[in-house]
Protein 1
Amino acid sequence: TMFPPTYYGTRLAWIVPGYVAYHVFSPVAAAVILHLTFYCTAVWSLYSIVRRIAGSSAALFSAVAFGLYLPAIRALGWDYVDGAVIAYTLLTLALLMAGLEANRRWLTLASGVAAGAMLHSNIGAAFMFPSILIWFPPGRTGLVERGLQPARPWRSLAMQLLWWGGGIVACTASLSIVSVSAGGNWDFFM
């Protein structure tokens, strides 16, 4: 059930993957697969982010250090939303950096979907948005150094922000459909 009078229904971006995992696999396998998927997503995303900023050696060191960091393992290994927020935040940044660097709108859209999932895992993750938005201004992704900066950087920025916002809206709309079909409200995030 969606627990309409409680806050649980606001965390659909964490509940839906768990629901799918527990309906596809046995309970023990589902728990392992669910948590390992979020763990691997977080570690891979951190590697991707650091590789773009500081190179492969620093990325490997960071990913291994993060992957062995006990508070991260604990957060990604238990059933509370912390692990989902961590994984979705890192995935948001990895996809955003790749999308901005390659000027690929579909990656920016996917980053927006991950940002929506981050937000809909725990509304408190909204405090992460400023640290994500700092990557949008032109010149932050290394394009200028490689001579790949678009002729009108602010127009490109506006388009990327629109695609990113569209991803958040798409994630919210998808989870609203899930909420309504499970007997909850369309505004599950309220």
Protein 2
Amino acid sequence: MFETLITHYESPLYFGTHMAKDAGISEEKFQSIWRKMEDDRTLGKISLEKILEIILKENHCYSERVLKMLVDKRINTKKDTFNHLHEEIIPMLDGLKDKGVYIGLISNCFSEEAKIIKNSILYPYFDAICLSYDEGIMKPDKRIFELCMKKLNVNAEECLYIGDGGSNELDAASKV
């Protein structure tokens, strides 16, 4: 989804560096926990709220107000990405649907991104959705590609995979 159909870079950014600054924590201390937990965040083992709570408590600056501010800013900046769709995305998806093409979505994402994707303007276009946070599998694991094909009821030979190349997804899709 991100950097294939939508981009972060047309919206305000709110990544670990920004959250660390807003929390009053050094970037190094924030990132040491944030990055270490990236796979767990991607695989649905920990939510945005919980990881931020851990970071704030370990750095002795936890408050519900600070937690809420970080969560809200992160969610709002992620939501904003859907306000900057390239002008050809919706017509392309409409064209594929008009031709009867099944469309699957495979995305490595975190808890906040999974919620936003499900509530996005693009979500109804997909016939099958495999979000790493929900499925507990992330690219480049071949199982997430196989799961999407199973949901679409198609064989690998019938599929065309499109992605930005992150997470070694293109090699993984080719192998599947």
Protein 3
Amino acid sequence: MKRVLQIMGGLKRGGLETFAMNIYRSIDRSEIQFDFLLTQVAGGDYEEEAKSLGANIYYIPPRNKGYKAYHKALDDFFSKHHDYIAIHEHISSLTSIDPAYYAKKYGIPVRIFHSHSSSIQKSLRLHWVHTILHYLNKPKVHSYATHYLGCSDKALDWMYKYTGVRSKALMVNNGINCEQYAYNKIIRAEVRKEFGIGDADFVIGHVGRFIPLKNQVFLVDILSELHRSMPSAKLLLVGEGDTMDEIKTKVSDKGLEKSVIFTGVRSDVARLMQAMDIFVMPSWFEGLPVSIVEAQAAGLPVVASDTISYDSDLTGTILFKSIKDSAEDWSKCIVEWKEKNGRPNNIEKLKKAGFDSKTTVKQLVNIYIGNV
């Protein structure tokens, strides 16, 4: 049995975590098994599922709890666990690439950096320090890693530009199980009944962790403007996070409590998307979010900020708008874009674009076993 170590902060239900789990579910686990090395508090949403699929989950203290302790933990871990055929480090920046250093020290042959973002959150504590470290670590990339992956051109440029390896970097699509998201009228009716949504109500959908980057606060402004002409419009928010209380307060201040649905973290995103009419993502920046691929698979027209990679438009059904435009302008465009696109069947388009999880699995397996 060959094993690959997936390295990330935790196993909460976020974009890069969902990507890793989609691959884990689809890979032939009789040939390749995953383990996870995490640097955040235990108890992530996917941990029990990962264990049930055969993964070992290991924890080390995060770097911000002490630089020396972090390095000692990495050294101790890889000195005992160096039989992996590959490590796959999922990162949003080059702030911390030390796991690859120790993997190299102890002889792990394939060491992968995988970029899942295109910038550093300005809301992040000491974000300027993270930015400095990101650029200081660029000269080390070629010596620490053997493979350089990213989810979009923006993500590849952010991570590998000025490293000397940008030309070698490969795009790996955020593949999903496309059929799972295919539009289903029966499920749509069930979910709408569950949340008290009327058959004729217009539902704006959004899936994402509640953090400043995702900009859910702007979605509330959009709904408020939309209510001027469409009082029955609703906002369906899937996820949780640090800014949820702030968003709930704004919803209350605007008197929209009956029009905004907070589902919390859910394992049935494909099902919830059936109840939506359009998907809106006003993020300040992104790589290529898994949720935007899922939305297209569900046949949802998408309105997204133009800071998100244009590579994400796989079906011709995404409208990119400036995040500087007004909420009123966004609300008008959302209605017009839905009327123009309806509910298209995008499954075959996504497969042809290479965004089926089976295609992504083949690409990664070839990297893991050294064929690329």
Protein 4
Amino acid sequence: DIYTTDHCPLPLPPGHRFPGEKYRLLRERVQAPLPPNATLFQSIPATTEQLLLAHDPAYLARMESGDLDRGDILRLGLPWSRELVTRSKHSTGATLQAARSALRDGIGVHLAGGTHHAFADRAEGFCVFNDAVVTARTLQAEGIVKQVAIMDADVHQGNGTASITAGDSSIFTFSIHGRKNFPFVKVPSDLDLALPDRTDDMLFLEAWKHGVARAFHLSKPDIVIYLAGADPHEQDRFSRWSVTKNGLADRDGWILRECRDRSVPVVVTMAGGYGKNVHDTVDIHTQTVHIAAELASSK
């Protein structure tokens, strides 16, 4: 099953750098036509009770009311609006829905999500709520899973995820990211692999395969939440790496096959992607969806 938040539009000023257009283009590409045996669903928003499993009540109240100061808005990188809060709730809920599909079918996909810079008490880097942690803790609270692994292949380190789950041995965090890239102050994950500028396919995939194997060994997860960022791509505005589309396809195939072969359900989120040409970003996210669909069909 594939989940979309594209029915929750986010009004932004003209020329804003947040890549809102990519979500519409991705949904259109995935629908034309849908992969065999795939079904596209609209998202259901996360509830307040679910959001509070990862976020402070005071932060949630401030975000709901728009009681944010200039520093809050600068850290978020987006203007506050009720539409932003609604979309963020739907995006978090879609990752949870995709996780439920993964537990049933082996793989579930969300065409957005991966908002790993959201902290318990603040937004950052276009991220309002931390969908991966909300999803993990909701499933745990329901008694569906015990151990969760969040495997983050966005080019930026998952600082919010690492912060919220610090000291929580039931959620294992693995992030592979650019050493000199945002965020410039990292929060230690359970496993961090920080790679240099101009990292190419060979170095990236060698480190990725090692990290995935290590993360499985250390966490023994009941489910994996995978952040399949498109921003490691060589033509991404914020990448600083030299990873190709083929390299990213190999990355996706590797982790999804590892999950299948270990009989571990996996939920796939799109995370970042800011291509100089938006169609490069959409190409990368689309190939992620199709690789997931092909592996789901081959079970």
